[in-house]
Design goal:
By secondary structure, the chain is α+β, with helices and mostly antiparallel strands.
Length: 789
């Protein structure tokens, strides 16, 4: 085979054994050489054929003298090396005239496998062959060794195991000859320097040394060395350098395949467990799969009270590789090992992954074959343990960043708009005395924008749901007791039924918290302990007892049907409101940064604070405040429309009400370190918080009607100019189709500590306008409203 000549190869080639015959001739002429007599015998046989001299144009000649040819070529490959991979053919030809036994057995030099397995594209390979041919021309005709040749990597799939094997391929040109055609060319020294300076400029080479002026002949020898283990390790290390090596399913599958190749085991499965902050075996519950885990294939640690005796615990505590060649007969068989055996694994290797002295996790390798994991497996894996640990450390770092992001987004009050202020304070601590008390985080001169979307009558609805569930549970319990009480031998059950009827009457008439507690205590302590005995009396009683038990929630142990439906509906209600809030406030955030927070209970209330101190680089004006106020009014209408779409899907219909509180005087907010949240600062500002807490229950003076009503928005304010400003907003919003008139104006009844409040109220349009403005239009429109104001 030598090199593979492509269709664009420009040189003529031929096969010749003259170089090999000359090699044996030299040995035959050396009487002191051990093979001298053997060499003369081979030469005599070759000369006797008359067909193995000179150029051999017909492959039939080789086949006719196969045994002699192989004897002549035995000098090229050590006969004692049964694993030697080699082949011989004409230079740059497709076919071999000889392959070593190991090469024939593995098929490594078959035409398709060889060409397809080389690490170069077809066009690059063809150019490389031409460059290699010119190297021989320079060496044989002009005595210049260009040293352009280099080994290549070839990969092919082992037909037995299905795994990739990797070979380093190199060519031996000792028996390659170059024959000039016509008068010898004599390129100038300058031309030769140009050629050596531009080894890939084939046009230049063909101009200076036209390929038709040379023939390449003799024999080309190709040898392959199995470098599967080395290449698998190298490629695995490269894989683990990828940023998502432990996250992408494709990468996980790839490094599993690399480990299969490294171990020569096509059936092994590989996983990685991360320990996070786990410091001892008792905290293995906090372990988690990284990409894929064999033990945590369901996402959680299997039930195993004796986990401290497991092989995983040994690897955790010892920090050394643990090898279990036969899981079924291992000295440690706990619930963890049983989980692996249930998946079909029979042997296991656990490789701890350290960075410095810190144990980050375990590499799991398991096989369905007994004895597949051994000390040799552990030795091979030890070379990739550190790259795995480094990749795991990077993945754990990424995971920590994501965790912090979720915590900040979901669980803390440090909103992105004010994070810069916390970073400044933290940087001062970091650059100075880390033990000093954190400086106060205060934002003075900010304007609040407050709103509430509440559920009308949620307390009463919840109470009715609890009452209905409790009545149902008492009725079912009473039915069971009454069914058993029909037996004349158990009059005590009549007394229990009498007490249950009294309890049921109280709960039906009015549910008070003490009645609920007393009823559940009565059922739990006096009725439920008797149910097994009652069920044993006869089938009718057993059916009544079964009906009682089936009605109970398995987690809470009480009837929970109506309250669960109510709570699920409230959760969906709140989720709908929160989604609109989050989406819309991001649009407004893009116009001017502001602090935003929301709270959920039976409904959602939210605070927005905007001002010069919130924005890192300032630039606040009253225009931005009016933008936010108009944005809020438009958003409330969108919340109402979205809830109208969702309400038919709720188990319990919940009617929303909407309220806005106007505060035209700036205030200060301070971050409360102990509560990890913002609150208003100063005695005057606290009045604002007091008003917020009470206005949702406000009533209209003179009529006593509740201010907030389904389908309406109520805006509460203190000063006349605030009412004027909002009336102008409403003129625009009614004309735009968000709200319907008329705008009602009301005085509110005095509340404890709160007097002199007024309110505007108007209806929200039942459907959205045909062309609904987005958040950006609302912000722009607020500017127009401000101009008119």
């Amino acid at each position: 085979m030598g090199h593979l000549r492509g269709p664009a190869f420009p040189f003529s080639t031929y096969l010749s054994l003259e170089g090999v015959l000359e090699f044996w001739r030299g040995l035959g002429q050396d009487p002191g050489h051990a093979l001298s007599a053997h060499a003369r015998t081979l030469l005599h046989r070759a000369e006797g054929t008359g067909q193995l001299r000179g150029r051999i144009a017909d492959a039939v000649v080789i086949e006719r003298h196969r045994s002699l040819v192989e004897a002549l070529l035995s000098a090229l490959f050590p006969t004692a090396d049964a694993q030697a991979l080699g082949a011989v053919g004409a230079p740059f030809a497709y076919t071999n005239i000889y392959e070593t036994p190991a090469a024939r057995r593995t098929g490594v030099f078959s035409e398709d496998a060889f060409r397809d397995g080389l690490s170069l594209r077809g066009d690059v390979l063809e150019r490389g062959e031409i460059i290699a041919a010119y190297q021989y021309v320079l060496l044989r005709c002009y005595g210049i060794d260009a040293k352009l040749d280099y080994p290549m990597l070839m990969s092919r799939t082992d037909t037995t195991t299905g795994l990739l094997r990797h070979y380093q391929v190199g060519w031996d040109s000792a028996f390659v000859e170059v024959a000039p055609r016509g008068p010898k060319l004599h390129p100038s020294d300058a031309d030769l320097r140009r050629l050596l300076a531009e080894p890939t400029n084939l046009a230049l080479w063909m101009e200076v040394l036209p390929p038709e002026r040379f023939e390449l002949g003799g024999l080309s020898i190709v040898r392959a060395t199995d470098v599967t283990v080395r290449e698998a390790v190298s490629r695995l290390k490269d894989d683990l350098l990828q940023h998502d090596a432990m996250a992408s399913p494709a990468h996980v599958e790839r490094w599993q395949q690399r480990i299969r190749t490294l171990l020569g085991a096509p059936d092994v499965e590989v996983g990685v467990i991360g320990f996070g902050d786990a410091s001892d075996v008792s905290e293995l519950d906090y372990a988690f799969p990284v990409g894929r885990s064999l033990l945590l294939c369901s996402g959680a640690l299997p039930e195993c009270p004796e986990r401290g005796e497991s092989n995983y615990a040994e690897a955790f505590t010892s920090g050394a590789a643990v090898i279990v060649s036969d899981l079924e007969h291992a000295r440690r068989i706990t619930g963890l090992e049983a989980s692996l055996m249930a998946q079909g694994f029979k042997s296991l290797l656990l490789q701890p992954l350290f960075v410095g002295q810190r144990l980050l996790g375990l590499l799991e390798v398991a096989s369905p074959r007994e004895g597949a994991m051994s000390a040799l497996s552990a030795f091979k894996l030890s070379e990739v343990a550190q790259p795995f640990a480094t990749a795991l450390e990077r993945r754990l770092g990424e995971r920590e960043v994501l965790l912090q992001s979720i915590i900040k987004r979901k669980y803390t009050a440090i909103h992105p708009s004010v994070e810069w202020r916390f970073r400044e304070a933290a940087a001062r601590v970091l650059d100075g005395d880390e033990e000093e008390m954190p400086e106060p985080i205060v934002f003075p001169g900010v304007y609040p924008v407050y709103g509430l979307t509440d559920i009308r009558g949620s307390s009463e609805t919840r109470s009715r749901a609890i009452q209905g569930d409790l009545v149902e549970q008492l009725e079912l319990g009473l039915a069971a007791v009454q069914a058993a009480g029909r037996r004349p031998s158990l009059p005590v059950l009549d007394q229990l039924a009498f007490r249950m009827e009294q309890c049921l009457e109280r709960v039906r008439s009015e549910l008070r918290s003490e009645d609920e507690t007393a009823a559940l205590t009565f059922l739990g302590q006096e009725i439920e302990p008797l149910l097994d005995d009652l069920a044993a009396l006869d089938p009718d009683v057993a059916r009544a007892v079964e009906a009682y038990r089936e009605a109970l929630d398995p987690r809470l142990g009480v009837v929970y049907r109506r309250r669960q439906a109510f709570e699920h509906s409230v959760a969906r209600f709140n989720e709908t409101v929160a989604q609109v809030l989050e989406r819309e406030q991001e649009l407004a955030q893009a116009v001017f940064p502001h602090f935003f927070e929301k709270f959920q209970s039976d409904g959602v209330d939210y605070n927005v604070y905007v001002g010069d101190s919130i924005a890192r680089h300032g630039g606040f004006s009253e225009l931005h405040l009016h933008n936010l106020r108009l944005w809020q009014l438009e958003m409330i209408a969108r919340i109402e429309w979205e809830l109208a779409r969702v309400r038919p899907t709720l188990s319990v219909d919940l009617a929303p009400t909407h309220l806005v509180l106007v505060q035209d005087q700036p205030l200060a907010i301070r971050f409360r370190v102990d509560e990890k949240r913002f609150d208003v600062d100063g005695a005057y500002n606290i009045r604002y918080e007091l008003v917020k807490k009470r206005i949702d229950k406000a009533h209209i003076r003179s009529t006593g009607e509740r201010l907030t009503q389904p389908g309406y928005l109520a805006v509460v304010y203190s000063h006349a100019h605030e009412g004027v400003e909002y009336r102008r907003y409403f003129e625009y919003l009614i004309a735009s189709g968000y709200y319907t008139g008329p705008v009602e104006e009301h005085e509110l009844e005095d509340m404890q500590g709160v007097r002199g409040l007024r309110a505007l109220r108007l209806g929200i349009a039942s459907v959205a306008p045909d062309t609904r403005p987005d958040g950006a239009r609302g912000v722009a429109a607020a500017g127009s409203a401000r101009v008119r104001a």
